[in-house]
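step: validate -> pass
step: tokenize input -> pass
step: predict -> running
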Amino acid sequence: MYPFSFQNPTRIEFGLDKEKEMGKYMHEYGAKKALIIYGSERVKQSGLFEDVTKSLREHGIEYIECGGVKSNPTISKVREAVAMAKAFGADSVLSIGGGSCLDSAKAIAAGACYDGDTWDFFKGTLVQKALMIFDVITLAATGSEMNWGSVITNEETQQKYSIHNNHLFPKVSVINPKLQATVSRDYLVYSAADIIAHSIEAYFTAEYRPEIIDFLVESNIKTVIRTTEILLNDPQDLNARGEFAWAATLALNGLTHLGISPYGFPNHMIEHSMSAISDVPHGAGLSVIMPAWMQWYQSQRPAQFKRFAKEIFGLENAEEGIQALKTWFDKIGTPTRLEQLGIDDKTLFEIVDNAVQTAIRAKVEKTYTKEAIKAIFALAKKSLIKKSGQIHKTMEFDRSFYILNISLVEKNAKNNRTLVTQSAVNLN
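step: predict -> pass
step: emit ->
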């Protein structure tokens, strides 16, 4: 195994009604004045907001609130909340909602301790200080409840960037599976895709991986597949809901990235450009990108793709494993083709150009050239069916734009194995 340093300071409170103790948890860390960040008014209509704030009042914690966080959270809302936190003199930010709320809360916590524009952090300025962060997570997907990352979209520049900093770990995260039982069918399957994407990024891109880590990742993916199918039939199955929620946390809390060689998040990199331009749900974008990227990338890690097919689906062939994942996405009802997201050719041109710039920022432009990104999107625009050992197209596409120069992109990939590292661990 590669040497590593690992510290995850986030305290998880898992179980029914744990959100009713949030005031106690925050009091233990000395919180006195909190900014509460949330998305829709559903958190109030359901009684969740009152359950949490009653606990805050019982422990003498003052609070103000800022609602309206949307999926694919924006810097404009972050800026609004930062101004509120500063005026209030907040010492903490409490997120009640999903990953978008928590990502916003992290950016707000950093921005409230900074004199400049919060977007500076997403352009490279180091976070030196942040307010305390707490959360009640109501959607299992992001993994943000136990990591150091935040992803925000700048709607003015159409950039969707991430920051990672030790100051952004939540102090306490509450995971109550019952609170996630009302998630819509669409967002359940989008979440499943997001968790699987978090799991496979390093699994496929790292040149060296200890087998213990592979076992952890494979177990997590199989748990997601099994519990998703249970929950589609019975959304109120709290045991399955709990396993699904914990799988989301484990996928991105650092444990599955220990002792491996440098790795990247290319699927997320490409999808961030998609949702920055077209505002598609993040998980839906990932379920389109993943099979296409896997088809394009598999020659770089043939043994690992064969292992994936065998361990996850009981298949012997890498191609069959990729198709099996795509078939499962189709089965559960998350998109697998660009047309299902309503992305036309004009929009796709913009997405490709955006992704090229994102790759440059991530320092992976030698691998993810414009030609490579086009090739991946070409695969995302058509259906792939395994037949007689060959992949056949079932959907026509514009060859003048989608030139599948696989030999070129594979050569680029082989010539540059330096992949951006985005992890909740420190590699020495």
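step: describe -> Residues 4-180 form a domain with the Rossmann fold fold (CATH 3.40.50.1970).
step: cleanup -> pass
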